[in-house]
Every structure is written in C-alpha cells, then in structure tokens.
Specification:
- The complex is a heterodimer.
- Chain A starts with a helix and ends with a helix.
- In chain A, strands 6, 7, 8, 9, 10 and 12 form a 6-stranded mixed sheet that branches. A 4-stranded mixed sheet of chain A has the order 2-1-3-11.
- In chain A, strand 1, helix 3 and strand 2 form a beta-alpha-beta unit.
- Helices cover about 50% and strands about 15% of the residues of chain A.
- Chain A is of the alpha/beta class.
- Chain A is globular.
- In chain A, helix 10 packs across helix 12, helix 12 crosses helix 20 and helix 19 runs antiparallel to helix 20.
- Chain B has a single domain, classed as MetI-like (MetI-like fold), CATH 1.10.3720.10.
- Classes of the chains: A alpha/beta, B mainly alpha.
- Chains A and B meet through helix 1, helix 4 and helix 13 of A and helix 2, helix 4, helix 6, helix 12 and helix 14 of B.
C-alpha cells in the first residue's frame, strides 16, 4: 500500500515536472499582462530601445492605467522608440532591486518607484531632465510638484500626480456613536474617539509595518497643525526630530496605539488597517483617494459601503497636498536619454494624468483642472486640499530612506510603551544623522 | 500504579503529543487551503472562519493576475536541476574530504563550511556582476548555477558526516573485488548514502524552490522567473487580493509537500545516523 502511494506521488511529481517544463519552454507563452511579449519583439531599424522597470503589475491599482498608456505610447511613438518593460512585482522588491542595480551601475533607463524617494540616494546616476523639459511641459505642471523632484535647481523626476491625502471615516459608525461631524481640532478628534469607543467601536485603523503608512500619516498631520510643524512637514530630509511639536505628536500616536486602535495594529501593515476599515471594524483610516476604488469592490466590502464613507481634512484643517516623486531617468547615452524623456513626457501628459485619476484616483499635478469622471469622494478630497489651511508633504517623500525604515522598527516599541515619545524622536534623529 | 495502567497512560500521552504536533504542522496548511476558497471580505472579517462556499475564483484570479504557470515551470526546472547538480558535485567533494588525507584538507573544509556564515545579501552584487559578465544574467542556467552554489555548504556539511558513518571496509572489499575508484563511489558508496543524499536533496530543493532575492535580481523577464516572485503579484503597498494570494500559495507549497512525503523515510533515517555519528 505504502509503495503504491509513494509510486503514485512520484508519478504525480514527474508529471508536474514535465508539465512545468513544457509550460516554461513553450515559445508561445505570453506574460500575464502581455507586456513582455511586446517588449520582446525585435527592434526595427532606427528604433531607439529603452528599458523601463515597473511595479505596476498584478493587483496594483496602476496596472490598467499603465497598459492603457503604454499602448497609446506605442501607437504614437512605436516606430521610433521601443520600450522594454521589466515587471517587478511588489513595491519593496522593486526598491530593493533598484538598490542592487544602482550599486552595479546598471539602472534601467526609466524608473518609477511609486512615490519612493530614490533621488537622494541615486542622484549621481539620475539624469538632470532640465534640458529636456520645454516651456509648455514646465508650465503645465504645478510648481510644487517640480520642487519635490528637484535638487539644487536640477530636475531629477517628472511628476505624474500629487500626494493629496485626508482621512476617511464611516458615517454610519459616527452616527451610532453620536458624532455629528468630523473633528476640527485634535482635542475634539480624541473626544470623538472616546465616543466611538464608548459605543463599542474601535476608532482608528493603524499599522506599524512597511513604515507604518497609515499611522505615519496621522503623525505627520498632528505635527503639521502648527506653523512650525507645517514647515517641518515640508522640509526635505530633516535631520533633527527632537522638536517639541514632533515629540508631542508622537505622544498622541502612542495614545492612539494604547487606547484607540485594534490589536493587530502592532506588526500589521496597510492591508490589516484597510481590512479593518473595509469590514467596518474601525471607523477612521488616513489614506489617499487611490483607496476609493476599493470602496466599490464587493469582494472586499459590503454592497453600498461607499455610500457610508466620508472624507475629511485632518484637525486644524491640515491636508497632505504636495508633489510626489515621479519618473526618473537613468539612461546613459544621449540618444536613450532623449527617447526616455519622450516616454516620460508622454506618460505624464494631460491625457495620461486624466486617465490616472479616473482609473486609480491619483490626483493630477497639472496647473489647470482636468475634466474627468471620478468618484465623488475623490472630487471631495481635491476640494478639501484646495481649501485647506495647512498643506503638508508626506514622510516617504521627504525623510531619509533609513529614517522611514527606522519608523517601522520603533512603532511597535512605542505602541508597547517600551520607549517614550522622546526616545522615538531621538532614534529617528540618530538614523537621519547617519546620512551625510 | 499497575503496569497496564502505566502503559495506557504513556500511550495516551504519546497520542496526545502526536495529535498536538500533527495539528501544529497541518493547521497552517489547512488554513491556507481553506482561505483560498474565502472571499477577501470573509478573510478580513475572520481569519479562522470556514468559507461560505467552495468556489475556485481565487485560483482563476491567481492564474489571470500573475504568470504563475510559467513561473511554476521555471521553478521546477531550476529546483530539480540545481538539486541534481548539487548532489553530484557535493557528494564527490564530500567523499574526498571524508575519506582521504591531504594537505590543506581542514582549511578547505573550514572555508566551505564558513561560507554558511556569509549573508546572502552580501553576495548579491558580486554575483550579479559575475552573471552579467559571463552572459548568464536572465537565464535559467545562471539561476541553476547560483542555486547549486548557494546550497553547497549545507549539503557538504550533511553529506560529509554521512560518508564518515559508512564503514571503510565496504570500500576496501570492493577494491579487492576489482572495483575501480569511480565504480566504488557510484556503485557502492552512493547507494549506501541514500538517506544522506535524500536529506540534502530535500534541503536543496526547498532552498531553491523558496529562494527569492537572487531570482529577483538575476532575472528580468518572465521566461526565467520563479514562483516566489509570483506571490508578490497579489499584494502591493495599497492593493491586495488575499483570496488569490492563498490560492497561489496552495499551488506553490504543493510540490514541497509531495517531495517531502516521498523522501521522508530517508530523511528521518539520515537524521538519526547523523545524530549518532556526528
């Protein structure tokens, strides 16, 4: 009997190996996206080939947009420029691979790290795009978006969208707790959290892993409520976090961890925080409008969930409203640089940005308003950003990469009261000062 | 306490312990399997609830969203080939180290074993550069060679111990009967070391099957990439599909389990031998 089982298993495995071999060797096999097949076509005479590495694959909300725009680009420029796409699934895997390629001087011609700031670590390999940006292109984009992508007057990134973030709240749960409207001060915000808690509702979605995105947005918003805090949250690469307003904000975050969030916040990543909000186990989550599409996805939420959701500016009328790191170019020859600039210009033009907001909810960084069909919550977020008193930038774009990593290490300790707010600030300062 | 009661008590404790260990081993696998049939909402609402229905949507989505079948094929080829090569090279090396005295033997053995202590992240860049310069970047052969080499120190350590446990007299008898060096190794020694080789095969296969970082850095096209990379297609910083992820995980872990079931007896036997002979 035993022998029969083992023989059957061996046969099964052998079958799988053969099947796998056939699948792998099949010449007609095409990538899930079909992109690779396009990229593998032989280049025509006179065509300039450029390489583009993207993480817009799999379940990425930008996947559909990217394929749409790549197809449009190929239609217009296909005879002159051939884009070889390398798919790298996973944002962190993407950044990790770029770091290795940077060290080996083998970066792809075009990079889009989805908001991660690679400029400060890879500036010496990135191309100054200033000579390739004509007046029309320059004038069409919001100045603050160029600023985030510039260093010492040189432009190292072509922006595609703005970072506009407030927080989402569940109107039904607010009503149940007797809350009439979102808080206008942090004091009121914590009172609302107490009301939610009294009604048996966990007030906040929070996280600590992967730089604690949701939590850090709250932290930045608390810091940004004063003038000097706002200035700090718009400072590129800050090195000193031992500021009173920063320490006070960290204390508030510690209080949130201790009293107002779910147990899975410690160690949890964005998906845990989002999952709790989608299943109405928490009432508030800080995040950008790219999340709105999920409010309509009935595989994740209950039918009609989107109607229950409202969006608000952070207390003190603070909104994240800043430029975002865009496409970077690392091509080595002038011919490839020109082709890369053409590609990047196309991917960030008005049509591309319009498609981006419609498909992904990413807010355009154009000076003029685009007429686009977007979800009402996205429209509302744009309105909140336009009317907010204070405008801040997010930590991932501004802080040193090792400080962003340090945040994930320190949050769990802060949440478990193993370190104080002062110690947290000190740790970030130490990490920041390791950079030259 | 009467003897039969003591036996009954011991047997009960044994059964309870076995049941607990079985549960600990099987529960995560069962959880992954069951989760692959749940909707994302069901998973988020309760990680441990049973699925409301058994549909294969997650598997369909997993196949649509990622090139998992192609990666599956690549993984099987790379893991199988690197296991065979690793066994071949390491068994020959380990045999020489286990049986023959020569100058620098201890130093060389130390060098091979100490390479276990080098973190793989430190090897990334040099290996990347080597692969590019010898034109093996983004090739299946390149990955096979790297995986073969990565498993070298562990395999060497296990097999050398095993060879040392085989009585030398058997080989001497073979030589007297007219066996040459190669024949003695392949016909007499290797079959006797079947258990040790099985252990190494399992370890090497699993290492290659699960290896992520080199597979990411040393490849750029789908035609070469392996399964661990496919799992990244289901979660990004702001998007996720748990159902498809669990379906993909189920598909990914299946061969490892099958391999282990086939070779488990040899592995257990080898571990016992290793424990006695050191």
């Amino acid at each position: 009997m035993k022998k029969v089982v083992r023989k059957s298993l061996s046969m099964l495995l052998a079958g799988v190996v053969c099947f796998g071999g056939l699948t792998a060797c099949s010449p007609s096999s095409k990538g899930a996206s079909g992109t690779e097949a396009k990229g593998q076509e032989a280049s025509k005479e006179g065509q300039v080939e450029i390489t583009f590495a993207t993480s817009w694959v799999g379940v990425s909300s930008s996947k559909e947009w990217f394929h749409n725009r790549l197809e449009a680009f190929n239609k217009e420029y296909g005879s002159e420029i051939k884009v070889n796409v390398e798919e790298i699934a996973g944002d962190q895997a993407y950044v990790d691979k770029m770091k290795v390629l940077y060290s080996s001087d083998a970066l792809p011609d075009v990079i889009a790290a989805g908001g991660y700031n690679l400029i400060d670590t890879m500036q010496d390999k990135f191309v100054d795009l200033t000579p390739y940006i004509d007046e029309e292109w320059k004038n069409s984009i919001d100045e603050k978006c160029w600023e985030v992508n510039s260093r010492d007057g040189k432009i190292y990134g072509a922006p595609i969208s703005k970072q506009v973030i407030g927080y989402f709240y569940n109107k039904d749960l607010f009503k149940k707790a007797g809350i009439e409207k979102p808080a206008s001060t942090w004091e009121e915000f914590f009172q609302n959290c107490d009301k939610l808690k009294a009604a048996g509702i966990t007030p906040l979605s929070m996280d600590t892993a992967d730089s604690g995105w949701v939590t850090s947005l709250m932290l930045g918003a608390i810091v940004g409520q004063t003038e000097e805090g706002e200035k700090f949250m718009n400072t590129s690469l800050p090195k000193d976090y031992n500021q009173e307003y920063f320490v006070n904000a960290v204390s508030d975050i510690q209080k949130m961890f201790n009293e107002y969030t779910s147990t899975d916040a410690i160690g949890g990543a964005y998906e845990n925080a989002a999952g709790n909000f989608f299943t109405e186990q928490t009432a508030i989550i800080a995040n950008g409008p790219w999340m709105v599409g999920d409010f309509y996805d009935t595989d994740k939420v209950e039918e009609g969930f989107a109607d229950k959701i409202g969006v608000a500016a952070f207390p003190g009328d603070v909104m994240y409203d800043a430029g975002k790191i865009g496409f970077n170019v690392a091509a080595k020859t002038e011919e490839k640089r020109k082709a890369a600039a053409t590609f990047v210009k196309f991917m960030t033009n008005e049509d591309s940005q319009k498609a981006n907001v419609e498909i992904t909810g990413e807010i355009p960084c154009l000076k003029k308003e685009v007429d686009s069909k977007v979800y009402p919550l996205v429209q509302e977020t744009i309105h909140l950003a336009n009317t907010a008193k204070r405008h801040i930038n997010d930590f991932q774009s501004l802080w040193f990469a090792n400080v962003v990593d340090e945040v994930s290490v320190e949050y769990p300790l802060l949440a478990q009261n193993k370190i104080t707010a002062e110690e947290f600030a000190k740790k970030l300062t130490e990490a920041a000062q390791k950079n030259q | 306490m009467p003897n039969y009661q003591r036996i009954l008590l011991l047997r009960t404790i044994k059964i309870i312990l076995l049941a607990v260990f079985t549960l600990i081993s099987i529960a995560p696998l069962a959880w992954i399997l069951l989760s692959s049939f749940k909707t994302n909402r069901e998973i988020m609402l309760s990680a441990f609830s049973l699925p409301s229905s058994f549909d294969f949507k997650g598997y369909r989505v997993a196949l649509e969203v990622s090139p998992i079948l192609r990666f599956y094929g690549n993984s099987l080829i790379i893991a199988t080939a690197s296991t065979i090569l690793n066994l071949l090279f390491v068994s020959m090396t380990a045999y020489v180290f286990a049986r023959f005295e020569f100058k620098g033997r201890a130093l060389m053995a130390l060098m091979i074993s100490s390479s276990l202590l080098i973190p793989s992240s430190a090897l990334l860049m040099p290996i990347y550069r080597i692969m590019v310069s010898i034109h093996l970047f983004d090739t299946i052969i390149g990955l096979i060679l790297v995986h073969t080499a990565l498993g070298l120190p562990t395999s060497f350590f296990v097999i050398r111990s095993y060879f040392q446990s085989i009585p030398k007299e058997l080989e001497e008898a073979a030589y007297i009967d007219g066996c040459g060096y190669m024949k003695t190794f392949f016909v007499i020694v290797l079959p006797l070391a079947k258990s040790g080789l099985s252990t190494v095969a399992v370890l090497q296969f699993l290492m290659s099957w699960n290896e992520f970082m080199f597979a990411l850095v040393l490849t750029k096209s789908e035609k070469v990439r392996t399964l661990p990379l496919a799992l990244n297609y289901f979660t990004t910083q702001f998007s996720f599909n748990y159902t498809a992820l669990f379906a993909a995980l189920t598909m990914v872990i299946l061969p490892s389990i099958i391999i282990y079931i086939i070779l488990q007896e040899q592995v257990t036997q080898s571990m016992v031998t290793g424990a006695i002979k050191g």
